[in-house]
Each structure stands twice: as structure tokens, then as C-alpha cells.
Amino acid sequence: METVLQETDSGVLRVTLNRPDKLNAFNPSLHAGLAAAMGRAESDSSIRCVLVTGAGRGFCAGQDLAERNMKSAQAVDLGGGLEAWYNPLIKRMRALEKPIVCAVNGVAAGAGANFALACDIVLAARSASFIQAFVKIGLVPDCGGTYFLPRLAGTQRAMALAMTGERLGAEDAERMGLVWKVFDDDRLMEEAARLAKSLAAGPTRSLGLIKRGMYASAGNTLAAQLDLERELQREVGRGTDYREGIAAFLEKRPPAFKGS
User: What is the chain written as a DSSP string?
Assistant: First the structure.
């Protein structure tokens, strides 16, 4: 069975984590499937948006602990797995200059929660939940958790979520700013697909540079960010989508963006 499913429609690459019997927990096969999907999104210009979700009743339960050999008395180097799989994945997601929409359809725990937060726009089913489960087994948040949580929820909330490992419901996650919108379970994928198709029909270069600018702001001074905005605006101004956008506005018609 393929652990990551890929399908394309209207410029959207839909990526489905497909280990439903394990709540789509990460293992080497799933990591390899996600790496392949990211490579496709990077290289295929016809793909203008990525939509990520999970099969079955969960989004992603984090690392598959059954894959870990704990019988040996030797110390475990947990950093190796981060260096080999998780960290490259998060870096590629943030560097991809195309929007990534995440539809959290159930529990998102541990690395699964932070994988979701690494996406650009997060939608959640009303029954979904987010759990920083690391502390339950004596770990610290990874997969970008210590970066995303304080920036999205604030230091106090981030610290409490990480130190208690409490379950956070979808509506509370929305109130904290971890999630863009919450939908009834039976509407989640319809709404996620609608958003992804809308983004795929948009000015892809502009969306990619919006992403670059937003993520650069965390480490920039205001002066540096203003300089970056100037350069980003120069770049999109040279593209065809800007010209199309202006023409459509003046002609009072919907724009037909080509993504360039």
C-alpha cells in the first residue's frame, strides 16, 4: 500500500497521508512519499497549490513509536531522524514558493501537529485536535514546534501546550491563531478543495513571494523588511500576472492568471 497518495486536479496537488491504521504516523516510507511529493511540487510548473490531508479518522499521530527499537541499552540519537527526514521536509515546505493548504481531518499529535503548522493555511474539522505529545514521553517539540508555536499562539500559550501536552480542540486552535478556519467534519474537504483551487487559479508568483516575505519578516528589522518588499514588488512587476491583473481590473472582468 502506498503510504502517500498523490493526485492532481485544476493545478492542485492533493497529498494524502495514507497509513490510516496507524493514524498516519510517520515512518521511513511515509517520509519518502512526502519527499517525492515535495519534489513534484517543486519541479512541475502545472502544480500551483498543494493540499495536504490524512486518510481515515486521523491527520497524523506523529512518529510511529513502534518503529523505534528500545530494547538496546545504548543511548538513542534522536537527532539523526530529524536531520534525515523532518528538518529537510519542513525547510522544503517553507521554501516552496507555492501555497500549501492543510486540511486537518482528525487528531494531529506530536510531529503531526507541527507538520500541519508548517503549512501556509491550516483548516480543521470541528472534531480535529492538536496535541504537543512530546512531553508525554520525555521529549521536546520538534518538526518546527518550538518555532511555530510561540509565533502563532504567543509564548505563554506555547509554553503551556508544550509543557502539559494537553489536547487542544479545533475551535480553541482557531481562537489562538493556529488554524485559519474550522468547518463541520462533512464540509472540511469540500472547503479545503475550494480554497486550494482558488489559490491554484491565482497569481502563483505573487503568492510565492507573499510567502517569502511573510516568513522572512520574523528575522528582519522593519527597515530590512521594507527593502525586501521593494525587491519583491519589483520582481512581480516584471511578470505577466501583474499586467493581467491590471487589465482585468480596468476591463471589469475576472483575471485569468497564468502563474508567471
Answer: --SEEEEEETTEEEEEE--GGGTT-B-HHHHHHHHHHHHHHHH-TT--EEEEEESTTEEE-SB-GGGS---S-SPP-THHHIIIIIHHHHHHHHH-SS-EEEEE-SEEETHHHHHHHTSSEEEEETT-EEE-GGGGGT----TTHHHHHHHHH-HHHHHHHHHH--EEEHHHHHHHTS-SEEE-GGGHHHHHHHHHHHHHTS-HHHHHHHHHHHHHGGG--HHHHHHHHHHHHHHHHTSHHHHHHHHHHHHTS-------
Superfamily of domain covering 4-200: 2-enoyl-CoA Hydratase; Chain A, domain 1 (3.90.226.10)
Q: How many CA atoms lie within 13 A of 55 on its CB side?
A: 18
**Domain ranges (residues) in the chain:** 4-200, 204-251
The pLDDT tens digits of the residues spanning 119-140 come to 999 999 999 999 999 999 999 9
Q: What are the tens digits of pLDDT across the range 25-59?
A: 999 999 999 999 999 999 999 999 999 999 999 99
Number of C-beta neighbours around residue 7 at 10 A: 10
Nearest to residue 134, comparing CAs of 145, 123, 150, 122?
Answer: 145
What is the C-alpha separation between 38 and 98, in angstroms, rounded?
Answer: 11
pTM of the full structure: 0.95
Please give the Cα distance from 78 to 134 (Å, whole number): 13
